[in-house]
Amino acid sequence: MSSKRIVGYNSWMFRRKAIHDPAVASELVRDIKAAQPDHVMVTGDLVNLALPREFINGESWLRNLGKPDWISFVPGNHDAYVPVQWDKGMGCLGNYMTGDLMVPGAVTTADIAMPFPYVRQRRNIALIGVSTAVPTRPGRAAGVLGEAQIDALAATLKNLRSKGFYRILMIHHPPLPGMARRRKALTDAMGLKEILEDQGCDLVVHGHNHITMRNTLASRHGPVHILGMPAATSNGARSTEPAAWNEYHVRRTSGRWQCTVNTRCWDTEKCSFVPQTSYSLD
Fold first, then answer.
1. What's the CA gap between 108 and 233, in Å, rounded?
2. Mean pLDDT (whole number) for 78-82
């Protein structure tokens, strides 16, 4: 076991094990299935220490949730916790990271064999997945997009805007500078911020911080709404934020995009997910 896995294992045993409950994740699956959404987005950290068995279990969990063409996944820092051979690691999740629109300039890395960004078209909505997952040294959980992926994303956002798509960007790390502590932040967040300001994006969804986050960035093409959510397994213990998930209703009215967000949160007393809040994104 690598030194980082040892650190991570101790963190799990003495702190995080009391917070993350598989029963919460199972109930989340039931709640999502009951809502019958058109599509599901998962923004990373499906595993903990990047052990081969974890990826097998993670794929099983996703398969129980739904088919690969119904679920879009982007990897998080725990999915790249340490270098793992592709076919024994994230390759197990490859079917959930494949696009159906061509993306010029999409890149692979030594750790991730899938091309990123990838784009999935679902009616008039374009789901854009990028990867910030890179192995880091113990004590760090930073992410990196890289120049090639940023350039490809810029061209993709421009192309999809010209074709009238509602564009949703899926990313694990919070996308803007200052949204995460330095050791956990996206190292090239400034580059991504400039792209979002220049090309716009209707919605950005992220995870990583394990808390509800709602930010807006002004762009040349209107506001970029940026939403983050708590961990899907959080039971709310030790003052952590309990698990929650967002249901997005996207529609076009009088030539303008509208999106209503309904948040469902884990209720520790009822042991189920209940409505928490509802709001509109202009």
1. 30
2. 96
The neighbour count for residue 268, using CB atoms within 10 Å, is: 12
Mean pLDDT score, 202-220: 97
The four Cα atoms 71, 241, 57, 275 give a dihedral, to 10 degrees, of: -40
CA pair distance 58, 260, nearest whole angstrom: 30
User: Which of these, 205, 197, 202, 220, lies nearest to 257 by C-alpha position?
Assistant: 202
Q: Which CATH class is domain 3-235?
A: alpha beta
E strands in 34-132? 40-42, 71-73, 118-122, 125-129
Taking the C-alpha atoms of residue 276 and residue 256, their distance in angstroms, rounded to an integer, is: 27
What is the C-alpha separation between 136 and 184, in angstroms, rounded? 10
Chain centroid to CA 47:
13
Cα dihedral 77, 79, 84, 85, rounded to 10, equals -130
Q: Beta 213-219 vs 222-228: how paired, if at all? A: antiparallel
Alpha-carbon distance 47 to 38, whole Å?
Answer: 25
Which residue type is seen at 254? S
Contact (CB, 8 A) for 213 and 233 = no
Give the domain ranges of the chain.
Answer: 3-235
CB 140 within 8 A of CB 11: no
- How many residues appear in the chain? 282
Query: What does the pLDDT look like over 36-79, one tens digit per residue?
Result: 999 999 999 999 999 999 999 999 999 999 999 999 999 999 99
In tens, the pLDDT along 238-257 reads: 899 999 999 999 999 888 99
